[in-house]
Specification:
The chain has 369 residues and is an alpha/beta fold. The protein has twelve helices and eleven strands.
Length: 369
Amino acid sequence: MAADQRPKADTLARRQRLISSSCRLFFPEDPVKIVRAQGQYMYDEQGAEYIDCINNVAHVGHCHPLVVQAAHEQNQVLNTNSRYLHDTIVDYAQRLSETLPEQLCVFYFLNSGSEANDLALRLARHYTGHQDVVVLDHAYHGHLSSLIDISPYKFRNLDGQKEWVHVAPLPDTYRGPYREDHLNPAMAYANEVKRLVSSAQEKGRKIAAFFAESLPSVGGQIIPPAGYFSQVADSREKTSSLTSSPWASPLAMATLLPAWPQPSLWRGHLKPPALSTSTRGVGLFIGVDLIKDEATRTPATEEAAYLVSRLKENYVLLSTDGPGRNILKFKPPMCFSLDNARQVVAKLDAILTDMEEKVRSCETLRLQP
C-alpha cells in the first residue's frame, strides 16, 4: 500500500512502534501526515493544503523544479565522495568565495550543521592548543556528543555542564540582565564574556573558541550536493525575476507583525510589551514573544501552544521556541509571499480574538453570584 493511502492511525501506530520516542512529532496530540510539498505549501494524505512557516531548510521552497532536475540529472551521472577530482565541487567553491570576504577562501563541504560545528570545534582546539569553550545561555549547536556538551539548551536536561564549558548570558534586551532601558546593553553583555574569560584564566583554563551561533552547512561529502547547492543559488536568483514581489518576503513578516491588528486581548490576557521588543528577527526568521504580564514578562507557554495548535487546524504550520516555549517562531522558505503573510496574520488575529472572547466569558461567569 502506498504511504499516502495507508490510514493515518496505522502510520502513527507503526511510527510509535518502530521509531524512537525521542524523535518528536510536531502536533503530537494530532500529528499531520504530510505526503508531498511544493513551494511554501505542504499537503496531507487528504489533499489539504498547509502554509509552511516551519521548514526553512527547503531554502527556495519545497521540490523546486530546477533543484529537483539538477539532483536527478546528477544522480544519473555520478554520486561518489569528494576524494576524486571533479569540476563541480571546485566551481561551487569558487562561486561561494565570490560572495564572501577575501579571507574566507577555503571551504569544507559537510553534511549538516552538527558536522560543521564539530569540525569548527576541532579546528579551534587544534589551532589554539586549548580545550575550553565559551557559549551563550540557551544555545544549541547540534546533536553530536561534542556539541551537546556545549549546548546549554541540551546539556541542562542531560549530563549537565562540563568544567571546560563557560556559559555567558544571552544578550537579550527583553528578558536578560541588561534590558532595553540599560545605557549600553551591548557593552554590558560583552563585559560579561570578558569577565567569564578572565575568571577561567585565573583558574588556569584557556579558551579555544567562542560559539555564539550555529554554523551553516552546505551539504555532503559527495559530488552531487555541490551541484545541488549551486542550483539552489541559481534558483534563488531566478526567483527574483519570476515572482511579482520576490524580495518583499523578508519584509512581509517584519512589517506586518509589528503592525498586527491588535484585538483587546493584547490589553488583557496576553498583555504584551512594546511591539518593538516583542517581535524580533532578521528577514523571514521572526520571533513573536507572548507574555502573560507586562511587568513580570512571564512566558505565555500554554497560550503559545494553543495558538500553534489552532493555527494547524486553520492550515498554517508554525512552531514555538525559547526557554519558555512561548515564542512563535516563523522560518518559512524564501518563496513565502506577502499574501501568505497576510493570511497568517489574519488567522492569528482571528484566533487571538476568539481567545479574548473566551477569557471575557470566563471572567463574566466568575463575577456572577
